[in-house]
Amino acid sequence: MGLYSETIFPWLLDKALGHPNIMRRRQALVSQATGEVLEIGFGSGATLPFYDPAIVTSLTVVEPSEGMNRRAAAHLAGSPVPIKSVPGAGERLPFADASFDTVVCCLTLCSVQDVGQVLAEVRRVLKTGGRFLFMEHVLSDDPERQRWQQRLNPIQKVVGVGCNLNRPSAQLVRDAGFSLDPMPVQEEEYAFGALKKLTPLVMGSAIKA
């Protein structure tokens, strides 16, 4: 899987997630980030242009994929805010408790190995009152679509290098002890090609009490 996961898949993912609808949602999410910010699953840096230097003091990014880090390297010099790229994964963040005002996660919780551990780490590194901003594709509310998501998930995990179709991310964020702003709205018509009916999106802003 090395050539595919670290070279071909990063290119494919950038193409799939470069759709204007996805980028518009990314901008809406990331523009809410303030203060000292951490982004988990930075990928190739698609969110970078949307950080506002007037309200973001610094940006730290974590991305475990070497292929994604190679693609991101070209964008780091043009960052609108001071940026630091740190090796690591969401399950084991190399930062002290209460280090960040905002943590951002875009289309990442679907593919981490242990969602609960990642969210526990997010809570740990957030300051009290800090905000967790997330956008994810999630388990559908529709029973028939749920059945198809479950059937296709084993294939998706291989093709998508660990990506899952069936994670109820908003509920998992609640279960991790966060207080969510008004219930995120699921969007069924979004840009994932033939899989768009099976990849509803959810956006949320969660606060560490």
Task: Identify the notable features of this structure and list them briefly.
alpha/beta; seven-stranded mixed β-sheet; 6 helices; 35% helix; 22% strand; globular
What this model shows, in words?
By secondary structure, the protein is α/β, with parallel strands linked by helices. The protein has helices at 2-17, 20-30, 66-76, 115-125, 143-159, 169-175, and strands spanning 35-40, 56-62, 83-86, 100-106, 126-137, 179-180, 201-207. The chain has a 7-stranded mixed beta sheet, sandwiched between helices. Strand 4 (100-106), helix 4 and strand 5 (126-137) form a beta-alpha-beta unit. Helix 1 (2-17) crosses helix 3 (66-76). The termini are far apart. The mean pLDDT is 89.
Topology:
Blueprint: H1 2-17, H2 20-30, E1 35-40, E2 56-62, H3 66-76, E3 83-86, E4 100-106, H4 115-125, E5 126-137, H5 143-159, H6 169-175, E6 179-180, E7 201-207
Parallel strand pairs: 1-2, 1-4, 2-3, 4-5
Antiparallel strand pairs: 5-7, 6-7
Helix pairs in contact: 1-3
